Amino acid sequence: MSHFVPLEVSVFDAAFTLDPYPFIEHLYEQEEVLGFTSEGMNFCFRFEDCHDLIAAHKNVAREPVSVDEAANKLFSENYPARAWHYQYSLTDVKAKALLGRYLTMLLDKLRVDDIERAFSRFRQSGRHDDYMIEVRLLPMRMLLSAWGFTYTDAQLTSLYDDSVALVKSFEHFDNEAMLRKGDEAMSRTRAYVAEQFNNAPAGTLLDEFSRASREAGFDDNDGIASLVTFVQSTPNTLSVSTALMLRNIMRYPDAVAPLRENPDRVSESIIMEFLRRDNHVKALSRQVHNSFTLRGKDLAVGDSLFIFYPGVNMDPTHWDAPLTLNFKREFTRDNHNIFGGSRYSCIGSRIALKYFSYVLPSMLANVDKGSRLIKEEIEVDGEWIAERVITKLPILVP
Ligand code: HEM
């Protein structure tokens, strides 16, 4: 019967966040190990198990198992914005389809000049460690502009900080301070998006979306909820993955050398390989709704576990030499879970691929091959599970 074993380090430890593989490598060969335990939480980490969990979404879902009306009422009273149904668009198929259609249109409106400005700094020799704020804001700047949102730099920074506060509150239902911050963050984001939704300049995608949402019979509150989901998902996802991509460009100079010579060679599968090796998604929770057997272990209704995505993306029984950046790997529809799957498929995958199709060549062209990371000084933000933000990634350019 398989079981969970203790991880010898905290999942919150920056060393584990930045390089989890050495801590879990030995577990893959132990067939009876279903996962690891840390900080009171259980994590599954194998490709095959994750595949089974994703396929079994009717038994193992993200939503809580039981709806405790009294507890929900109290939560809504204490954290009204956090309790607001901003993820409505993900549970309503029609709303998700409408948002998806507009996200596809968004792809052609991305402006790339901001990217070059962010990365051309690396053409200067010396130490660079004050650039992360600009890299962090880059995806939001590009995507909000493409929609036709208007913003000041201060608003952009505030939206970014609010997105972080919100994600931190996802997996911490017992942490009053994080929930409070998440609630305040959502309240500000909602007010900003509602204001933009109602005053979208004519001719913008945002204006078209507001009209289409109303014409399709959605209440304004629901149209706004769809956009809030998008706005709050954008910054962490793309910016943390950008920082990790930058790190891997410097960690694997030999693998990257042919790309540097010809950055135009960057293709979807090359971007996927970078994202497989490392991306912002760390652990996402699941609740057992109907009893279910995983790797021979019976999971009972009410059990809770996390999918540890870096473990899945580097499972050596599925990926040959998983630590290596190998641009010959072939990604098919279902031989990876980089963007999740089935009911919880990523709504931003096309945007991510398009964004990196501009960002990766710019990084390759601007970051000299002799540049190196000052590893000892990399900093990671806080004790949160779903995603971890790199706040400092000092680089030395010769
Ligand atoms: C670096 C690129 C990205 C990667 C690797 C990635 C990965 C993932 C993964 C693994 C999931 C599945 C979650 C689960 O199993 O519970 C997911 C879901 C999701 N992603 Fe992404 N993502 C990326 C970019 C984005 C972007 C740019 C956005 C928004 C613009 C976004 C928005 C979302 C949302 C809203 C969900 C939840 C979908 C649902 O529940 O229906 N992601 N993503």
Textual characterization of the structure:
- The chain is an alpha+beta fold.
- It has one domain: Orthogonal Bundle (Cytochrome p450), CATH 1.10.630.10.
- Helix content is 51%, strand content 12%.
- The strands form four sheets. The protein has a six-stranded mixed sheet, sandwiched between helices. The chain has a three-stranded antiparallel sheet with strand order 5-13-10, with helices on one face. Strands 7-8 form a two-stranded antiparallel ribbon.
- The structure holds protoporphyrin IX containing FE.
- The site of protoporphyrin IX containing FE has 24 residues, from helix 13 and helix 17.
- Protoporphyrin IX containing FE binds at residues 62, 90, 229-230, 233-234, 237-238, 241, 275, 279, 281, 284, 307, 309, 338-340, 344, 346-348, 351-352.
Layout of secondary structure:
Elements: E1 3-6, H1 14-18, H2 21-28, E2 33-38, E3 41-44, H3 47-55, E4 60-61, H4 69-78, H5 80-83, H6 88-91, H7 93-107, H8 113-119, E5 126-128, H9 132-147, H10 153-170, H11 176-198, H12 205-215, H13 220-251, H14 253-261, H15 268-277, E6 283-288, E7 292-294, E8 297-299, E9 304-308, H16 309-313, H17 349-366, E10 372-373, E11 379-380, E12 390-392, E13 395-397
Parallel strand pairs: 1-2, 3-9
Antiparallel strand pairs: 2-3, 4-6, 5-13, 6-9, 7-8, 10-13, 11-12
This protein binds protoporphyrin IX containing FE.
Protoporphyrin IX containing FE binds next to α13 and α17.
